[in-house]
Structure formats: structure tokens, C-alpha cells
Amino acid sequence: MQQSVSDPLLMSAPPQIPPCPVRRKAWLWHFTSILLALLAACATAGAQNANAPEVSSQETQPEFKIEVERNMVVVRAVVRDSKNRPVPGLTKDDFRLLDNGKPQVITQFAVETGAAAPGKNAAPTPAKEKTEELSEEATLPQMPRNYLGLLFEDTQMSVEDIARTRQAADQYLATSVQPDDRIGIFTTSGQAQVDFTNDRAKLHATLLLLQPRPTIRRDPNECPNINDYQAYLMIYRRDPYALESATEEAFTCWCANVPPQAQPGCEQQIPSQVESQAGTVLNMSENQIEYSLRGLEGLVRRMKVLPGRHNIIFVSPGFMSYTIRQQLGEITDRALRANVVINSLDSKGLYVGIPFNDPSQPNPVIPVRAPHLLGRKAQFLEEGIRHAEEVLNDLAMDTGGQFFHNSNDLNQGFRDLAALEAISYVLAFSPQNLKRNGSFHTLTVKLVKPAGLSVQARRGYFAPQKSENAAAQAKEEIEQALFSQDEMHELPVEVHTQFFKVNDSDARLSVLVHLDLRALHFRKDEGRNLNNVTFVTAIFDRDGKYVAGHEKVLEFRLRDTSLGKLQEEGLSVKASFSMKPGTYTVRQVVRDAQGGEMSGLNRVVDIPY
Fold it and tell me: Smallest Cα–Cα separation from 430: which of 422, 420, 441, 421?
């Protein structure tokens, strides 16, 4: 009989010491040797810990990938009167905010206008003697806070649509854009674009380059003429009226004029050919919509790394969304997380409700055997237009934007959609017991006294995903703070900038940060005071584009005497950058690990040419 052998390390009772005296002495000697070795190792580790440096540092050039919001949820609301005019003068007490139907405490409140107060982000200039080589930052003009991206769906717009919307956009840019605004022109085809700038001549020249650039061209004389919505009904819904309408059109085009004896054979082939054509139409439509969604998602990604407020006007005739709901949800998710508002403008203008009166569309085919189906065809066209508008409305409503449609006054459309940022109220709250599971939360913003007023605000937010560890969460918080222009003062931090002109085309910029350590909390361990402090510096150009960054992490293991000295004197950190002449915004973020407190400050520096 075979006996099983158990691992002595897994037994509940300790192993028996061999009865032989010699073996017992050997076992005791072996155990003593191990114990002495462990004591020696502990003594060595203690000595090493005692001799460990009090301050060590790590410096890197950070890579920023913002994907998750902080726990503080920000809701930007615009209140309008019965004439659609923004209402000023409201206070925090005028609002009620609900998260999934539960009232929330508004912990922060601010009123924002399209143009920020000049010089708000500028650092004061101390009185000092000027030198030829070293300059301190001066009071400079306000850096941009508003970014407006105009996205034209040139892959689906007609010549008439582009001509109307281009003229209206040009008129808006010429009359309504403020010097501190940055405008970008983008297209779903990826052609005729200009990144965010305040150069109106460049914006005007780019608008003139707009033209229809369809990714797929359909034969206008195709018969039967099946639109996207009818193809969807035929393939996914097996709608009998959609199938019958297409079949009768096909008979009129293919079989009505053949000899009577050949008509039965011709008609027998119609069902398979019509269904194949519907599948081709639907596939072409989905491929073209993919271009539009990639353009929209790309612009959202572009804007999330810009400071300030982000606003998109999506100029489009609309498109069918039944088969791309998941992609739309992902774009909405990304826009909400990046605080990007998507507004939609229907490029068709006023819709007269006569589907066969559009000169850009082919003449309808009248079924010879069932002329009454022409009315059904008109219904498919009208329903297709309505569903195409729904996707534009949903994109706007789900991200807190507006949908301008059914009007030929496109000049007013651009003014209304861009005016979302004219007067807005910023409400912020910290959700209680928020589960970091990525779930969607419905937000409702109400007025205590509505009195005929309406509120426009984002309809919800996504809870952040659970971080793998505390370091990952800290990184997310730092990145979110870095790409915001909001100043935070949880830690006593001072920031100064200096530059040294190397030559006419190069300069050296230094960012000097002073931290008062008396506000920091340290954890005591083995006679040392422990904490880590992260200093992150980012440089943005005058258009808000990220130029350079520097990250330094200081790991403190301070003795009591060293901590006392640092608390008296404070700590200074310096970051240096090689720069070209120009105007820049310096964003400095400081965070300590023990308290999780953070400060974020802005400085503007002008390096002359």
C-alpha cells in the first residue's frame, strides 16, 4: 500500500525532532545559525535605515493621458429667459442640484463670462532693479480660456449646405469673436483644417477651402432609390412596406419595359437583388458615418488637453444612428469626462416638409403597378430626415449643449450656440459615497423660483473607474489639475518665473517654486518624518497648446531637527526649460502624498523677440 507524504510546512503540528542525540544537536545548531543570520540581517537593515538619505528626488518629463474625472463634479449651467437670452445675477441659493434624484450640496459656485477679467492669471511684479539678462514676469494680457471648435461634416454635406454654413461661420468670426478666444476649424474628411488660433485671416482662408468631400459616391439615377432609413427597415426590421416599395420600384425600372413573356423571370430575381442593394446602401452609410464619428471623437480628444472651457459646434445634416449607438455613447462618455460641450447645427436649414421638392435629390420613381406607394416613399424620406436630426439633438442634450435647427438664419445659429459660454454658472459638488465603477449618473439642475426661466446643463456624468492603487489615483488628480486653469490654494505655494535670453532666438526659462512645509503632515516611522511631494510644471503657448513639462518628486525621510529647520525656512524647487521667444502660460501643480492636498497656480511670462 502506497503511503502519501505530506509537506511538513503545511502540517498543523510542528515536525518531530529526531530522537538521535547527534541529530538533535545538529538541528539545534542549524536553527541557531538561521536565527543569528536573521538578527544580523535585521541589524544591517536598521543600520541602513538609520543611514538612509533624508531627501531623495526623482525627475521625469511627464506624459499626460487624461481619462478620468476627479471626484469633484463640475456642472456648467446657463439660465435663459423666454426670449432665449442668458440671465445674469443669480446666486448659489437660486439653484438645486440632484444626482440620480438625490439633492446635493453645492460646495463651490462661480459666475463665468465669455471674457475673463484681464490680468487675473498674471503674477505681481515685485519692485526690483532691472538687469539686461534676467527678467521677472510682468502683468500681461489674459491668456485664452475659451476654445471653440467648428466641426464641418463635409463628408455628407451638400454644396448648398457648405455655402450657407460657411458664410454664416465667417460672419460670426468677423463680428463676435473676442481677442482671448481661440477658434479651430475642423472637418470630418480631415482636409481644410486649422488648429486653434485667434488669427482671423487664417480662419477666413480656411473657411474658403471648405467643399463637399464624400467618402462614397452613389449613383443619383440608381433604381430603386433606397435611402439609409429604408435600407435599415428592410435589413434589420424586415418592414413589409419598405420591402414592397423597393420591389415595386425595381419592377418599374427593370421589368416594366421588357416583353410580357419575360416579365415573370425578371420579377423572380427582384427580391434577392433588392435586398442585396439595401445591404450595400446600409454598409456604405455606416462607413461614411464612421468618418464623421472619428472626426468628432478626434476633436474631443484634442480639446481635453487644452486649459479653460471647451465648446464644439458640429455642423451637419445629421445621419442615421440606429446601428452606431455604441459609438455615440462612447463619444458622449469621452466628452463628459473631458468637460467638452457639443452643440449641433443642422446645415439643412429650414425644412419645408416636401421630400420630393429637393433639387439635390433624384426624381422619384412612380411604381406603375402600385402608384399609391409613392406616399409611402415620401414617408420613408421624412422619417429618415427626422431620425437624422435626432442624433444631432441627442449629442447636444447629452453633453449639455444646444441643437439649432429648422431655421435658415444660420448667422443667429452660430451666435446662439457659441453664446452658451456667454454667461454661465459653475456648480460643483462632491458626491457622497461615490462608487468608482464607471456608472452613469443623471444630473438635474433646477431653479428654486423658475418664473418662466429655463436651465441648460449637462444631463449627467460618469463615475470614475476604480484606480489600481493610490499612486495611480494621485497621478489622475495631478493631471486633471494641470490641464485646468482654476487656481487651487490648499498648500502654501509661491511661484515665480525668470528668463535669460541666450541669443535672439533662444532663451532659458526658470520656474521657481517655494513651499511652506509647516502646512504639510508627516508620518512618523522609526524616528523619521515621511512624506512625498510632487512638483509638476507645464508650459502652454498663447493658444493653450502644451509645449513642455517637468515633474519632480521629493521623498522625505527627515529627522526631527531637519524637519524643524525646513519648516522654518521652507523649500524651494527649480525647473528650467529651453524656450523660443513668445507668450506662455506656466501652470504649476504641487501635491503632497500624506494629506492629498494640492495647489495649482498660473503665471504668464512674455519672452520678447
Answer: 441
Burial 214-237 (b: 16+ CB within 10 A, else e): eeeebeeeeebbbbbbbbbbbbee
C-alpha 403: how far from chain center: 20
Query: Is 425 among the domain residues?
Result: no
Looking up residue 483, the CATH number of its domain turns out to be 2.60.40.10
**Distance between CA atoms of 424 and 87, rounded to whole angstroms?**
9
The 3 state secondary structure assigned to 319-386 is CCCHHHHHHHHHHHHHHHHCCEEEEEEECCCCCCCCHHHCCCCCCCCCCCCCCCHHHHHHHHHHHHHH
Number of helices (H), then strands (E), in the chain: 12, 25
| Residue with the three cell numbers 437624422 | 388
Domain of residue 556, residue span: 55-66+469-607
Say which amino acid occupies 36.
L
Handedness of CA 250, 251, 257, 260 (dihedral sign): positive
**Planar angle of CA 144, 147, 150, nearest 5 degrees:** 145
Percentage above 70 pLDDT, the chain: 81
Q: Running DSSP on this structure, what letter comes out for residue 209?
A: T
Single out the residue in 379, 399, 419 at which a domain terminates: 419
530-558, pLDDT tens digit by residue?
999 999 999 998 888 889 999 999 999 99
Going by their DSSP bridges, the two strands 403-404 and 546-558 should be labelled as unpaired
Handedness of CA 421, 173, 197, 404 (dihedral sign): positive
Rounded to whole angstroms, the Cα distance separating 601 from 595 reads: 19
Question: Phi, psi at residue 561, to the nearest 5°?
Answer: -65, -40
Give per-residue pLDDT as tens, 403-454: 999 999 999 999 989 875 568 888 888 887 777 777 888 999 999 999 889 9
**pLDDT at 93 > cutoff 90:** yes
Q: What is the pLDDT of residue 510?
A: 95
Instruction: Find out whether 586 and 539 touch, Cβ atoms under 8 Å.
Output: yes
Name the nearest CA neighbour of 549 among 594, 453, 600, 482: 482
Cα(212)–Cα(157) distance, integer angstroms: 6
**Neighbour count for residue 501 (Cβ, 10 Å):** 17
Distance CA 535, CA 548 (A): 14
426 lies in some domain: no
Cα 202 from Cα 76, distance rounded (Å): 31
Report residue 223 as a C-alpha cell.
433604381
Same-domain status, 356 and 476: no
Cβ count within 10 A of residue 40: 10
For residue 398, give the nearest of 350, 472, 330, 471 by alpha carbon.
330
Q: Are residues 288 and 173 in the same domain?
A: yes
- Which pLDDT belongs to residue 76? 80
Domain shared by 482 and 574, yes or no: yes
Residue 412 shares a structural domain with residue 505:
no
